[in-house]
Amino acid sequence: MPLTFFILTFCILVLLVVMSYKIRSFKISREEYFREFGEEDPKKSNISTARNNVYALIVITSAALIFSLYIIVKDTIYAGHLMEWLNIVVRLLHITFGIAWIGASFYFVFLENALNRTENVREELAGNLWAVHGGGFYYLEKYKIAPSQIPKHLHWFKYEAYFTWLSGFCLLFIVYYFNASAMLIDKQVLDISPLAGIIIGVGSFILAWFIYDLMCKSPLKKNIVLFSVTGLIIATAFAFGYSHIFSGRAAFIHFGAMLGSIMAANVFFVIIPSQKAMVKAAKDGKFLDPQLGKNALMRSLHNNYFTLPVLFVMVSNHFPSTFGNKYSWIILIIITIGTAGIKHWLNLREKGKLSIWILPSSIVILLAAAFLSAPKSNNAKCESTVSETEVYAIIQNRCISCHSDKPTDPAYTAPPNGIAYRNINDVIKLKDRILQRVVITHTMPQNNKTNMTEEERNIIKCWIEQSK
Ligand code: HEC
Predict the structure, then answer these.
(1) Upstream peptide bond of 445 is cis (omega within 30 degrees of 0)
(2) Straight-line distance from the first to the last Cα atom of the chain, in angstroms, rounded to the nearest whole number
(3) 83 CB under 6 A from ligand 1?
(4) How far is the CA of 442 from the centre of ligand 1 (A)?
């Protein structure tokens, strides 16, 4: 079995390499033509169609590769392994593209904020900036609208955004949708079918985009305070909705994916089309509507404010005290406001504006989230001494379907996070983490799949307290 697996992967990889070479040769031949004849190859559009076909082929082949692997390993011991590796690869891609995108976003908002707009600025320029980085000096100029002649090589920042979104969307399927009954749905929150959950999830991103886009086109955009407050109320409604439909973790991820989808859609539907229209108008020597640039700038500023909340959601999975809380949606919104506040402070600081109160108030807001998510004291009485045998019996009943060397739960082929409760000593070693997950946050057993009772949680709690 693994041999077929490797041969197949190897063949497809060879194919992908050949295709990428093809793309490179297209590009080179186009550049050679330009160098020789000083003009674009008349066959340019043919070449780009061919190139796009190759790109499409690469995407289809990769999808087919993954799908056939899935068919091959389905119902074998490799199924979980395939999911794990897909998770690793796609997550790495997602983080890498995300860093490139957010890095560029931070950099350009910084540029915009830090431009020298007064000293020695030519008439056609909005400003300039000197910088030193990596042992070199850089000098940048921003045009008020566009240069009189659009240069041949113009760098567009768009693939970072598209690929971040695409890889994130794939990750949503790999982690949450393919394993919906374990990861997406928590029957104690809402008992819906996996398909209904997926439709609600994906549908909510589309709905959020339509609402947001409408807000940006309405007169609301002229009043920044009103715009932000309305946006926040709507975001709160989404957070509330998600946390009453999905499991705690999935609710957080959907909130982040919703914001992330708006960000990517901003790039795809507004920022890039405005830029294309600007380039075209400049090339044709037509009137250039400055509103185009302003629209794009507004959307990219919104994106900039979304970054820190989205980054929090991306790592929130590690923090059960946030997503496992009874009022997780309030905590999520508080952290969203606090982190966006910090971004606001950074933006103002780059502009050289003194904003004394924004940073401390953002920190106070974040502290409120820490305060709200603190464990509540559990006053359940511990009457008798709990024996280790009693505890281990509960663990065997409720935990080892996942946490053992050979889990019987179909969703896992290896103990999650490497934690297996082979005997009571394994339980004793991890008792602090068990207290956190089982007693305080109720985030284990995962989505309470094994129906652990409140009494059993109390027995665990008493045992941990008594053993101190
Ligand atoms: C349905 C499968 C499943 C069951 C049942 C389950 N767990 Fe887990 N557990 C997981 C998964 C998946 C993770 C890793 C993801 C996470 O941390 O949420 C995990 C993580 C943990 C962690 C965190 C480990 C770390 O790295 O911090 C602890 C502690 C834990 N489980 C304890 C328990 C206990 C105790 C029980 C029984 C009362 C239990 N689990 C039942 C699936 C399960």
Answers:
(1) yes
(2) 50
(3) no
(4) 11
Ligand 1 centroid vs 403 CA: distance in angstroms?
7
- Structure tokens of 138? 């850089």
The residue to which tokens 């091959």 are assigned: 72
Phi, psi of 187 (to 5 degrees): -60, -25
Residues 100, 105, 106, 110, Cα dihedral to 10°:
140
Percent of the chain exceeding pLDDT 70 equals 98
What ranges do the domains of the chain cover? 1-76, 92-115+162-372, 388-466
Binding site membership of 438 for ligand 1 (Cβ less than 6 Å): yes
- Ligand 1 within 6 A of 373 CB? no
Q: What is the pLDDT of residues 287-333, one digit of tens each?
A: 878 888 889 989 989 999 999 999 999 999 999 889 988 899 999 99
184 lines ligand 1 (CB under 6 A): no
Residue 42 clears pLDDT 80, i.e. is over it = no
Residue identifier of the C-alpha nearest atom 13 of ligand 1: 416
Write the CA distances from 234 to 211, 229, 304, 308, 330, integer angstroms: 9, 9, 19, 18, 13
Which two three-digit tokens encode residue 236?
A: 């709160």
**Cβ 167 under 6 angstroms from ligand 1:** no
- Burial (CB count <10 Å: 0-12, 13-18, 19+), residue 352: exposed
Residue 356 has pLDDT above 80, yes or no: yes
> For residue 70, what pLDDT band results from cuts at 50, 70 and 90?
confident
Predicted TM-score (pTM) of the model is 0.84
**Residue at token pair 């076909």:** 53
Looking at 285-405, list the stretches that DSSP marks H as alpha helix, in order from N- to C-terminal side. Answer: 290-316, 320-323, 328-350, 358-372, 388-398
**3-class SS shares of the chain: helix, strand, coil, % to 5:** 70, 5, 25
Nearest-CA residue for ligand 1 atom 6 is 445
Closest among 295, 235, 287 to 266, alpha carbons compared: 295
